[in-house]
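Recall from the previous lesson that a structure prediction takes nothing but the amino acid sequence as input. Here we apply that procedure to Leucine-rich repeat-containing protein 24-like from Vanessa tameamea. The sequence below is the only information supplied.
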Amino acid sequence: MGIRALLCAILIVLIRPSGSDWLSCGHIRECHCKWSSGKKTATCITSGLTQIPRLATDIQVLDLHGNPLNELQEDAFASIELLNLQRLNLSSTNLRYLHQNAFNELRILIELDLSRNFLTELSPNTFKGNERLRLLVLNDNPLSKLVAQQFPPLQHLKKLELSRCRLRKVHPFAFVNLRALETVQVHQNLLSYLHQDTFNLPVLKTLTLSDNPWYCDCRLRKFHEWFLNSNLGNEEVFCAGPENKAHLSWLDIKDEDMVCPPSVITSPSVIRTETGADIAFGCFVRGDPTPSVTWSFRHMVITNKTNSDSEIFVFNYSIEHFNEDLNDFINKSAQWFNVTISNVTSDLAGEWRCNAKSSAGESSAYLTLFLPKARTATARSAPDYSKFFIAIGAVFAMASTGFIAACVCWKIRRRHVPPSRSFTDQEKKLLDTSLAVSCDRTSVEMGSSYGFEMFDRSMSMESEDTQRCMEPVQITIEGPSGSFPPPPAEFSIPAPYGNIFISVQVTGHNEEYPDLLGGGATLPRRSRTCFLKSAYDNMGPRVTAAGSSTWSLPGAKADSKSNKETTSIAPLSTFSTEFTAL
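The prediction returns the following tokens.
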């Protein structure tokens, strides 16, 4: 007993360091290592890892679910010596790129989960070297298609999951190297057709096909028949089209009901040729059941015939050994209907019709044959530019006339525009009162507060009358109290003169003076001849130097409530009716 206990103690001491090493997960805090189902398991779920952690080399199960790995490069696991892995979970790791040699060194890998990632394609060599693989999960990856021999020989693979992978096309030989497959899941994809040999595997027991947009016509007939006869599942599979079969169960559809209406394509659709040439054209027809095909021209069915001008031969080629492009299934009943014409004449130009008809429907396509008509050459004459030059001359003459007329109008208008006159600062100061200018001088004391002299500075007038107007004049303001009379009619029309409003300061007197601040006066231009007498100088009431007031209208008499003596003022020198603006 003592020897046995000693040996056990020694064994425990030897084993303890190694055990504590793998249980610590290589001191990686994001991972937790434990025994699970008799296997050394490292769990690193949603730990934020961006690369495969360097754990103990004897780890058998590694769960990296939810870590943003993004990509796996070549020998991603061999570089950290995780060569004893049997189960690997890489679901939801945001994988977008997977190198074809990423798993090559995982020789004893049994289960691999790559679901819920962003893989759009897989290399046929991606799982090469994983011969012991039994479960492969690829759900929820946008693969879209599987090519021929998509998977390498995996003799132990039992289950393959490809649901929700947006698959549209699956090559008939995609699973040819997976001879041990027992379960295949391709439900919830975008499959419309499958070849009858796609899942022709020796030990297949379960196949899920539901929730795909199956189009139940002649192209799916043989696969439909194979699936119903194979008894590979108990699920309900429904048709998505054509319209008359939508939502029908595969169990309720008979093979003879899965037909394809005829379709016709002409090649080419337009032919241009010359009289006497030899041509050939045809139409490609598909349909199941096999349709009958005819060519017609001007509502006449064309058959082999020979006339004095042309020879027409019609050939029908049935495609018995057609190399099928499995991306676009072509029914075995497809045929090529060819027409050959020797020595084409103008009588054959026009529209040709290829018609296909069967119990499933009818279809037509058209071809147009053009033959150019003979043309006669005509002599070309020199172009006549006379009308062009006439039009240009007329436009030029109109423009010149308009320019000359504009110049004349401008000259005439310029002559009638009266010249403006500017006043000096001294003159503006003298115009503090209402001015009435007369060529006749009134004897008023020059030193009066209301009298002043104004000199005309125009030096261009040299006549005797003009010189008389150059003499200094006495300007007075006078007028009785009361309202101002309205101006005469001749001053109410627009004229080149302006009004000036005047402020008058008068010393206090006993007499009543007019309110000169409430009215206005217009300064008339001095008469150039000084002989024309104006009946009205348009100056309103004025005050004389002696202090009396009166209206400027000659002979006017002012009424006074106080019966004061009215002073009669001789009319001042009159002015012309021409006025100027200040």
